[in-house]
Amino acid sequence: SQQGEEDPQALSIQEGENATMNCSYKTSINNLQWYRQNSGRGLVHLILIRSNEREKHSGRLRVTLDTSKKSSSLLITASRAADTASYFCATALPSNTGKLIFGQGTTLQVKP
Amino acid sequence: SQTIHQWPATLVQPVGSPLSLECTVEGTSNPNLYWYRQAAGRGLQLLFYSVGIGQISSEVPQNLSASRPQDRQFILSSKKLLLSDSGFYLCAWSVGFGTTGYTFGSGTRLTVV
């Protein structure tokens, strides 16, 4: 069953602008992760935020988590053309399997 | 360093033919292994996961099966492919129980004709 849903489905911005993507989920989680996928390639892990954390930074990435609203956001600051990709949130449920449930993704286009 | 190998990169197979996709991990022991499928323009659907040799859990009943004959080898198979089996298949590994990120392979683009 689908756990995470990203919003918007597609986003087009100019280079230098900030990009914000949102993710909502339905059940309790252990952590939430964000991944990037370039066209036709495998996914690359970007950042993991635990359920007891509210905000995390990694370079130009900022992730927030609101467990009361069951939502997360990924902010990419000062975007570059190389940031063009699909971005997925994934939730790790409180289980002993390590399973991740992925959302449908946001396709980001950064125009030079 | 840890690496993951997945092959082949692309595959075109006729309906009714068998399938075998292989994934191997290097540089780690007893990883958790996963097979996902991604339909065009969509998110990832978890197909199988394994927390140890010979331990396979299926998420979605379908025309596929998985096996883990060795600690760092994960195989996705089908006896007879259907058109609906077309998609992008991704293998991934992790350590721990969801406490770390996944490392994905480069994927196999399967087209069933």
Total of DSSP H or I helical runs spanning 4+ residues of chain A = 0
Helix and strand composition category of chain A: mainly beta
Order of helices and strands of chain A: EEEEEEEEEEE
Q: What's the alpha carbon Rg of chain A, rounded to whole Å?
A: 13 Å
Largest interface: A-B, 28 and 29 residues
User: Biggest sheet of chain A, open or closed, and with what strands and sense?
Assistant: 6 strands, mixed
Q: Helicity of chain A, in percent?
A: under 10%
Report the average pLDDT across residues of chain A.
93
Order of helices and strands of chain B: EEEEEEEEEEE
Give the oligomer, counting copies of the same chain as homo and different chains as hetero.
heterodimer
Unreliable spans of chain A: none
Mean pLDDT of chain B comes to 92
Ends of chain B: how far apart? 38 Å
Total strands of chain A: 11
The main sheet of chain B comes to: 7 strands, mixed
Beta content of chain B: over 45%
Morphology call of chain A: globular
Tell me the structural class of chain B: mainly beta
Q: Tell me the Rg of chain B in angstroms.
A: 13 Å
Count the strands of chain B?
11
Write a structural description.
The complex is a heterodimer of chains A (112) and B (113). With 112 residues, chain A is an all-beta fold. Chain A has strands at residues 5-7, 10-14, 19-24, 31-37, 43-50, 55-58, 61-66, 71-76, 85-92, 100-102, 106-111. In chain A, strands 2, 4, 5, 9, 10 and 11 form a six-stranded mixed sheet that branches. Chain A is globular and about 45 Å long. The mean pLDDT of chain A is 93. Chain B has no helices and eleven strands. In chain B, the strands form two sheets. In chain B, strands 2, 4, 5, 6, 9, 10 and 11 form a seven-stranded mixed sheet that branches. A four-stranded antiparallel sheet of chain B has the order 1-3-8-7, with no helix packed on it. The mean pLDDT of chain B is 92. At the A-B interface, β4, β5, β9 and β10 of A face β4, β5, β9 and β10 of B.
